Amino acid sequence: TALKNARQLKTLIDQIFELAHLEGGQVSVTLETINLTELIYDVIAKFSLDASQKHIEVSVDTVRHDLLIHTDIAKLERVLSNLLENAIRHTDKNGKITLSVHDIDDSQCQLVVEDTGTGIKKEEIAYIFDTRYRASNATKSDGKHTGLGLAITKKLLELMQSDIKVKSELGKGSAFSFNVRKANFGN
Asked: Taking the model in full, what pTM does it have?
Protein backbone atom coordinates (compact mmCIF):
# COMPACT_ATOMS: atom_id res chain seq x y z
CA THR A 1 0.00 0.00 0.00
CA ALA A 2 2.81 2.40 0.88
CA LEU A 3 4.64 1.66 -2.38
CA LYS A 4 1.46 2.13 -4.43
CA ASN A 5 0.72 5.43 -2.69
CA ALA A 6 4.31 6.62 -3.15
CA ARG A 7 4.15 5.85 -6.88
CA GLN A 8 0.84 7.69 -7.19
CA LEU A 9 2.28 10.70 -5.36
CA LYS A 10 5.37 10.69 -7.60
CA THR A 11 3.17 10.65 -10.72
CA LEU A 12 1.10 13.54 -9.37
CA ILE A 13 4.21 15.58 -8.51
CA ASP A 14 5.73 14.87 -11.95
CA GLN A 15 2.56 16.05 -13.68
CA ILE A 16 2.28 19.16 -11.49
CA PHE A 17 5.86 20.08 -12.38
CA GLU A 18 5.20 19.37 -16.07
CA LEU A 19 2.11 21.58 -16.04
CA ALA A 20 3.92 24.38 -14.16
CA HIS A 21 6.76 24.18 -16.66
CA LEU A 22 4.30 24.45 -19.56
CA GLU A 23 2.39 27.33 -17.96
CA GLY A 24 5.64 29.14 -17.15
CA GLY A 25 6.42 29.61 -20.83
CA GLN A 26 9.80 27.91 -20.48
CA VAL A 27 9.10 25.21 -23.04
CA SER A 28 10.40 25.38 -26.57
CA VAL A 29 9.02 23.57 -29.58
CA THR A 30 11.37 21.53 -31.75
CA LEU A 31 9.78 20.95 -35.14
CA GLU A 32 10.65 17.92 -37.22
CA THR A 33 9.11 16.11 -40.15
CA ILE A 34 7.64 12.72 -39.25
CA ASN A 35 5.31 10.08 -40.65
CA LEU A 36 2.07 10.59 -38.72
CA THR A 37 0.73 7.06 -39.18
CA GLU A 38 3.94 5.51 -37.84
CA LEU A 39 3.73 7.70 -34.73
CA ILE A 40 0.09 6.71 -34.19
CA TYR A 41 0.97 2.99 -34.37
CA ASP A 42 3.91 3.54 -31.97
CA VAL A 43 1.58 5.16 -29.42
CA ILE A 44 -1.01 2.40 -29.83
CA ALA A 45 1.69 -0.21 -29.21
CA LYS A 46 2.47 1.38 -25.81
CA PHE A 47 -1.13 0.83 -24.70
CA SER A 48 -1.88 -2.47 -26.44
CA LEU A 49 -1.65 -4.51 -23.23
CA ASP A 50 -4.01 -2.16 -21.34
CA ALA A 51 -6.49 -2.26 -24.23
CA SER A 52 -6.32 -6.04 -24.66
CA GLN A 53 -6.87 -6.62 -20.94
CA LYS A 54 -10.20 -4.78 -21.27
CA HIS A 55 -10.92 -6.42 -24.66
CA ILE A 56 -10.99 -2.99 -26.30
CA GLU A 57 -10.44 -2.85 -30.03
CA VAL A 58 -8.08 -0.02 -31.01
CA SER A 59 -7.98 0.81 -34.72
CA VAL A 60 -6.52 3.39 -37.08
CA ASP A 61 -8.64 4.97 -39.79
CA THR A 62 -6.64 6.81 -42.43
CA VAL A 63 -6.49 6.63 -46.21
CA ARG A 64 -2.85 7.74 -46.27
CA HIS A 65 -0.07 5.85 -44.56
CA ASP A 66 2.62 8.16 -45.96
CA LEU A 67 1.35 11.44 -44.51
CA LEU A 68 4.25 13.60 -43.35
CA ILE A 69 3.62 16.30 -40.77
CA HIS A 70 5.79 19.05 -39.30
CA THR A 71 5.55 18.95 -35.49
CA ASP A 72 7.30 18.43 -32.19
CA ILE A 73 7.43 14.63 -32.00
CA ALA A 74 7.74 14.32 -28.22
CA LYS A 75 4.90 16.73 -27.53
CA LEU A 76 2.58 15.13 -30.10
CA GLU A 77 3.38 11.68 -28.72
CA ARG A 78 2.50 12.93 -25.22
CA VAL A 79 -0.80 14.37 -26.48
CA LEU A 80 -1.76 11.13 -28.24
CA SER A 81 -0.70 9.07 -25.20
CA ASN A 82 -2.83 11.18 -22.85
CA LEU A 83 -5.87 10.92 -25.12
CA LEU A 84 -5.49 7.18 -25.72
CA GLU A 85 -4.92 6.48 -22.02
CA ASN A 86 -8.09 8.44 -21.16
CA ALA A 87 -10.05 6.63 -23.86
CA ILE A 88 -8.99 3.24 -22.52
CA ARG A 89 -9.80 4.23 -18.94
CA HIS A 90 -13.29 5.47 -19.83
CA THR A 91 -14.19 2.70 -22.28
CA ASP A 92 -15.87 -0.40 -20.92
CA LYS A 93 -14.90 -3.96 -21.72
CA ASN A 94 -15.44 -4.89 -25.39
CA GLY A 95 -15.52 -1.23 -26.42
CA LYS A 96 -13.83 0.41 -29.38
CA ILE A 97 -11.34 3.25 -29.83
CA THR A 98 -10.50 4.72 -33.23
CA LEU A 99 -7.65 7.05 -34.07
CA SER A 100 -8.41 8.70 -37.38
CA VAL A 101 -6.70 11.19 -39.66
CA HIS A 102 -8.65 13.49 -41.99
CA ASP A 103 -7.33 15.93 -44.56
CA ILE A 104 -8.50 19.49 -43.86
CA ASP A 105 -6.72 21.25 -46.72
CA ASP A 106 -3.27 21.40 -48.32
CA SER A 107 -1.70 22.67 -45.11
CA GLN A 108 -3.44 20.76 -42.29
CA CYS A 109 -4.90 17.46 -41.25
CA GLN A 110 -7.04 16.60 -38.25
CA LEU A 111 -6.42 13.82 -35.75
CA VAL A 112 -9.38 12.37 -33.89
CA VAL A 113 -9.33 9.99 -30.91
CA GLU A 114 -12.84 8.57 -30.56
CA ASP A 115 -14.14 6.03 -28.07
CA THR A 116 -17.35 4.22 -27.18
CA GLY A 117 -16.83 5.00 -23.51
CA THR A 118 -18.81 6.63 -20.75
CA GLY A 119 -18.97 10.04 -22.39
CA ILE A 120 -19.08 13.41 -20.67
CA LYS A 121 -22.08 15.40 -19.46
CA LYS A 122 -22.82 18.33 -21.78
CA GLU A 123 -22.54 20.86 -18.95
CA GLU A 124 -19.09 19.52 -17.95
CA ILE A 125 -17.39 19.68 -21.36
CA ALA A 126 -16.37 23.33 -20.91
CA TYR A 127 -14.45 22.46 -17.73
CA ILE A 128 -12.65 19.19 -18.51
CA PHE A 129 -9.40 20.95 -19.48
CA ASP A 130 -9.22 22.90 -16.19
CA THR A 131 -6.50 21.69 -13.83
CA ARG A 132 -8.74 21.65 -10.77
CA TYR A 133 -11.77 20.02 -12.36
CA ARG A 134 -12.69 16.36 -11.98
CA ALA A 135 -15.61 15.26 -14.13
CA SER A 136 -18.43 13.22 -12.66
CA ASN A 137 -17.50 10.35 -14.98
CA ALA A 138 -14.03 10.09 -13.37
CA THR A 139 -13.29 6.44 -12.80
CA LYS A 140 -11.68 4.85 -9.81
CA SER A 141 -7.97 4.96 -10.38
CA ASP A 142 -5.34 2.25 -10.20
CA GLY A 143 -2.89 4.87 -9.03
CA LYS A 144 -1.76 6.07 -12.46
CA HIS A 145 -4.44 8.68 -13.09
CA THR A 146 -3.96 12.11 -11.54
CA GLY A 147 -6.55 14.13 -13.44
CA LEU A 148 -4.05 16.50 -15.07
CA GLY A 149 -3.70 14.76 -18.44
CA LEU A 150 -6.24 16.88 -20.34
CA ALA A 151 -4.86 20.15 -18.93
CA ILE A 152 -1.34 19.09 -20.03
CA THR A 153 -2.69 18.02 -23.42
CA LYS A 154 -4.34 21.40 -23.99
CA LYS A 155 -1.16 23.29 -23.03
CA LEU A 156 1.00 21.12 -25.30
CA LEU A 157 -1.32 21.71 -28.24
CA GLU A 158 -1.35 25.46 -27.58
CA LEU A 159 2.46 25.41 -27.77
CA MET A 160 2.15 23.67 -31.14
CA GLN A 161 -0.39 26.31 -32.23
CA SER A 162 -3.33 23.96 -32.25
CA ASP A 163 -6.57 23.77 -30.30
CA ILE A 164 -8.33 20.70 -28.98
CA LYS A 165 -12.04 20.16 -29.46
CA VAL A 166 -14.32 17.59 -27.90
CA LYS A 167 -17.66 16.11 -28.84
CA SER A 168 -19.26 13.79 -26.35
CA GLU A 169 -22.54 12.19 -25.45
CA LEU A 170 -23.08 10.68 -22.03
CA GLY A 171 -23.19 6.90 -22.26
CA LYS A 172 -22.11 6.85 -25.92
CA GLY A 173 -18.50 8.04 -25.94
CA SER A 174 -16.26 10.98 -26.76
CA ALA A 175 -14.20 12.28 -29.66
CA PHE A 176 -11.22 14.57 -29.10
CA SER A 177 -9.81 16.30 -32.19
CA PHE A 178 -7.02 18.71 -33.11
CA ASN A 179 -5.16 19.82 -36.22
CA VAL A 180 -1.50 19.42 -37.17
CA ARG A 181 0.47 21.04 -39.96
CA LYS A 182 1.48 18.96 -42.96
CA ALA A 183 5.14 18.89 -43.93
CA ASN A 184 6.45 20.96 -46.81
CA PHE A 185 3.73 23.56 -46.43
CA GLY A 186 5.15 26.96 -45.69
CA ASN A 187 8.57 25.59 -44.68
From this structure: 0.82
